[in-house]
Amino acid sequence: MDTQGNGTGAQALRPHAEDAFAHELKALSAADDRPRPPRWKLSPWAVATYLLGGTLADGTAVTPKYVGPRRIVEVAVSTLATDRALLLLGVPGTAKTWVSEHLAAAVSGDSTLLVQGTAGTPEEAVRYGWDYARLLARGPGREALVPSPVMRAMAEGATVRVEELTRIPADVQDALITILSEKTLPIPELGQEVQAVRGFNLIATANDRDRGVNDLSSALRRRFNTVVLPLPATADAEVDIVARRVDQLGRTLDLPPAPDALAEIRRVVTVFRELREGVTGDGRTRVKTPSGTLSTAEAISVVTHGLALAAHFGDGVLRPSDVAAGILGAVVRDPAADRVVWQEYLEAVVRERDGWQDFYRACREVAP
Ligand SMILES: Nc1ncnc2c1ncn2[C@@H]1O[C@H](COP(=O)(O)OP(=O)(O)OP(=O)(O)O)[C@@H](O)[C@H]1O
Ligand SMILES: [Mg+2]
Question: What GO molecular functions are on record for this protein (predicted)?
Answer without folding.
Answer: ATP binding; ATP hydrolysis activity
